[in-house]
Amino acid sequence: MFLGSTVRRPDGTKLLKRKEHVHVYHGISSEYQPDKKYNTEKKACIGKLASETEGRCTRMRTSSATILA
Length: 69
Known about the structure:
Distance between the termini: 17 Å
Oligomer: single chain
Number of domains: 1
Low-confidence stretches: 63-69
Strand order of the largest sheet: 1-5-4-3-2
Number of helices: 0
Number of strands: 5
């Protein structure tokens, strides 16, 4: 599933911890819900954080990873 290389984490990405792994998400768009009075954000997982100290992530081999390529 993952490529063997790591890349620098792009600016504007968000981190989401799932169990013991930290995944990197890129926000595609946000939509305001007037009836609920909050925004919902559409996001795509672009990889998994390899090292928190270096800020590098392992890219995923999915169609969502081509958004930033």
